[in-house]
Every structure is written in structure tokens, then in C-alpha cells.
Design a protein that fits this description.
Blueprint: E1 2-8, E2 11-14, H1 16-24, H2 41-46, E3 50-58, E4 61-71, H3 76-101
Antiparallel strand pairs: 1-2, 1-4, 3-4
This protein binds zinc ion.
Length: 102
Amino acid sequence: MTMIMQVTDEGTQYAERLHELLAEFGVNPELEDEIDEISLLPAYVLAGASIRTEAHSHGDHMHVVAITVEIADELEQAFYETLAQVLEASAADEDEDEDEDA
Ligand SMILES: [Zn+2]
């Protein structure tokens, strides 16, 4: 498995290639206000990634410590191709919505 993204209390780390792909679609992970890392998780899953959540509990409450997005090594190339298609499709949906509003 290759880690492509990890969200922790300390911030978010991206694989270089994911970072570049997001930038191509106008998502700039450098600007924290511009991206909600969590909102893109479904797109990663649709592209074949697995999400591992680490949490610990204190009786009746718990903390999520880390959310890690991973891809099987043999799927890594296809992951990026598919993610680009998923992001393209969702960008097209947004364009349609704008047309409907106009
Ligand atoms: Zn705790």
C-alpha cells in the first residue's frame, strides 16, 4: 500500500502526485481555506483508495487521531487516471448547476 494522503491534528500531508493532480483541477492544498480535505474522500474511494481511521476513546467520547488514504501499489497508476476522471465529472456537474441557475 502507498499512502496518498493523511489528515492528522498536525495538518494534512499529500503525496506529491496527488498534490499536483489537485492543483490541475484548481484545488490548492496550500491554502487551507480553499479545501476541505474530508470532502474529497468519496472521490478517492471511487478511484479505488482505502481509508483507514485511527481513533481512541475515553469512555463515552473519542478522538479521531488520523485519517489515512492508501492505494494498493498495483492500483496506483489507475488511481490517478480515475481520480482525474472523477474530478472532471464533478467539475462538469458544477458547470451544469451554474447553467441551471442562470
Ligand atoms: Zn484522546
